[in-house]
User: Fold these one by one.
Assistant:
Number 1:
Amino acid sequence: MLKKFFQDLFLCFCLVFFLFIAVEAEKLGNFRDDLTLKIFNEKCGIEMMTQLLYQKYPGAQPGNNPAFHELEEFTAEYTSRRKSDSRNLSRISSGELKIIPIVFHIIHQNGEENISDEQVLSALQVLNEDFRDNNPNRANLVVDFQGLEGDAMMQFALPTLDPDGNPTTGIERIYDPNFEYGDDFLMQETYNWPRDMYLNIYIVKHAHSDGYAAYSFYPSAVNSRPELDGVVLSHWACGTTGTALWSHYRVIAHEVGHWANLIHTWGDKYAVNNSKACRTDDLVDDTPNCIGLKGSDPQAGPDGCNTEYESCTSLDMIQNHMDYSFCPIVFTLGQCVRMEACMNFHVSDRDYIWTYENLVDVGLAE
Ligand SMILES: [Zn+2]
């Protein structure tokens, strides 16, 4: 009798335990779903963070900052020159392949934000696939846009030497309880490596306290603030494995696009999904006018992109990396030329980071 009692007790215990596990798993699943929904409209915080930058450093504002006009004038002239170059018609951009040293600073509190090397390397792989027109879903590019895609001829590589000439893997792990959030300028000011030598990527628990998945700045905005030049990613918006969310696998390409002076496909005058954006432009000729985002349904999963959406009387290029959709595949050739111009101009040292001299200094060339 006593034995039966203990057997029943044990069974009850098991039942309660498994119920507890099921409820917790459900909660975790909901949390991840909620996170995906929360960030549906908040993939990138460049606009919010740029306003913050202007408040703190008024000299960074376009009206006070000659770098904006110098870079845009150079880009317009460079683009015009490339348009008259017959090589521009080639799918493969004719620019010289640029190797860009990239360092990942993982700022962590010993939690899941201290992501694995494997996850970091998966982000690097995404970046190199997307900047060389080699996205794994490349065959799914809608017919209307085939032939517009470009190879940015930019390849990102982990350095083997740090700024002091000491060995590095290019993945730096820093325990710091002060920076759970990446929107504290002090975080970048504390941990940046020289931006003329490395593209700084920061991986944090939360890129922004309002929930933005990631952000970076345009090169002109940080021309006089080298310590704030880089990309900040939430750990779940970095790479394709570990803690990464499927909806944000390729965010790094979007943010590095900004780093190389690309604007959202709907322009930078209005927030995403504002019909007024049909009247503004991203300063690139071959990206269709649009208001962004509408063609993507996060609840429909990875196949939820509406590639037939027209927000401004023509087909949206929802598969562009500079949209907010969950199915980015390409940069256009026009965007590649815009980035190429930026990488050939002195603003924010973009014309130095890929030089042979620098590659020697970071251990990527002899
Ligand atoms: Zn963005």
Note: DSSP finds eight helices and six strands in the chain.
Number 2:
Amino acid sequence: MQLYNTIVFARCDRIAAAVVPARCLNRRNPIDPASSSAPSLAPVLPTARFLTTVVQLAQLPRERLPEVAFVGRSNAGKSSAINALCRRRRLAFASKMPGRTQALNCFALGPERLPDPVALIVDTPGYGFATAPLEIKRQWDHLAGRYLQIREALCAVVLVLDVRRGLTDLDRALLQWMRPDVPMLAILTKSDKLGRAQQRQALDTVEAALREARLPNPLSLLALSSTTGLGLEQARAWLEAVISEAVAAAVPARPEDSREQD
Ligand SMILES: Nc1nc2c(ncn2[C@@H]2O[C@H](COP(=O)(O)OP(=O)(O)OP(=O)(O)O)[C@@H](O)[C@H]2O)c(=O)[nH]1
Ligand SMILES: [Mg+2]
């Protein structure tokens, strides 16, 4: 698998592993698919199906399944990325009209023959929709912001950035809602709109901005296009690895396992 446009760093002040050889400095990112120690499940992204839409946190599914949230500015390409990653055309509703996703849309992952899903993908409403009334902006803080802050089941966040905008002030504000232990994949969507040199420049600029933000979270960065497929395989590998890790961690130890250790 070619990972030429992936830059992975465990901490913003220290590059952990870069698949671009020149940036490979020290230890590997725990979410680097190549170094993941979790038993790999069969790919779960192709099994995605709609589960529920919620407008209040209290309505979220009660089962504490690992959840991956897609967050980002309005119109950045969150819903399109979910569809492309799951190889489904109309799973999440994508639209030219900014502000289409106004609730948390949950998608179930895992073999359908099992009674319960193994994990969820959550599509969140975009922020920064210029003409949104203040009330809608407040609703965003209450719903998506609080969701990021308090949801224990959250095992990863995909930060969706339009490659032509990079990391904006609103995205920086969102980063403050992030819990420090949650791994994040930043994807620069719509990379098909730029040439290779400009993509590289955009990656460098966002990498520098994320380093400056000094987040403690494991961070990875990737250029992506939901239309041409650029970066989709790398993003899928990252997601499958992080979901496998979270599912393995969530499985309670069997009694015989603890007997073995006595
Ligand atoms: N060229 C190109 N267009 C894209 C890409 N991803 C999304 N788009 C377009 O960008 C527009 C917005 O995409 P959405 O996926 O609906 O964006 P969103 O972030 O979910 O938007 P909200 O739900 O309003 O927050 C649509 O017209 C998509 O077709 C991409 O990788 N390349
Ligand atoms: Mg959307």
Note: Confidence is low (pLDDT under 50) at residues 1-5, 9-28, 257-262.
